[in-house]
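User: Before I run my own analysis I want an independent prediction to cross-check against. Here's the chain; please return only the structure tokens and, at the end, one sentence I can use as a sanity check.
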Amino acid sequence: MSHVGVCVPCGRALVCAKNEVSVEVTYWSGPLYNELFSGDLWRCPDCGRELILGIARQPFASKNVVGSIEYDRIKRELKAAGERVYLMRPSNGRTPVRL
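Assistant: Structure tokens:
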């Protein structure tokens, strides 16, 4: 059985556009903190819709209210390298569930 995603409007199989993209998740319950996860960017070859799959179970960086020098350094390095950081936002307005 294949585990390739399918674009619902086009009916085409998604293709992996890039491995190990950065996904930033912000948690609002309790103390505010952010985490950076790695995931894979998939794209529909027809319409160009994008989807991130295979998000890691553990973050590679995190930052709480007080802050984190390491987290900020990683974000600066990603920006300097021209890497996009994708944001994961809850669709229902609530705090996302921790992975």
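Sanity check: The first helix runs from residue 69 to 80.
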